Structure prediction request, 148 residues.
Amino acid sequence: MNILMVCLGNICRSPLAEGILKSKLSAEHFIDSAGTSGHHSGELPDQRSIAIARINGLDITDQRSRKFTVKDFDEFDLIYAMDRSNYDNILHLSRNDNDRNKVKMILNESFPNENLNVPDPYYGGDQGFLNVYNMLDQACEVIASKIQ
Ligand code: 4NP
Prediction:
């Protein structure tokens, strides 16, 4: 399976989702992340994401931010949006139902049909990153259990 995690900047939430899901799946699966905005392209994940990942035994410092593109619909089987705004921005680039059917709200894995957002932690403190980490860990556990 090729799975893409998408947020706005690809420096806070989706790098964590990428790192967490990778840690739960074998290397035969390709997991990547991207942002709907290109504002942080080429940057490392946010230091607070790096820190909360490290506390949990994950190294995400090999990641660099990149922008989501329409080609991602061809490369990935599943595309997980962190929030409704990301979801709408991804769907805006979709070309057909095949593209659209790949796009899911990630927290619907752990809270089906609730369409909950992973809150953007960028302007908050460390507690926000811990909260995001725990939400994503729970959702990725469900994703990994379905795939393996
Ligand atoms: P992310 O968080 O979408 O989880 O990577 C954000 C990162 C940067 C900004 C907003 C959200 N920003 O406005 O620069």
Q: What stands out?
A: The domain at 2-147 is CATH 3.40.50.2300 (Rossmann fold). The mean pLDDT is 98. The first strand starts at residue 2 and ends at 7. Strands lie at 2-7, 30-35, 78-81, 103-105.
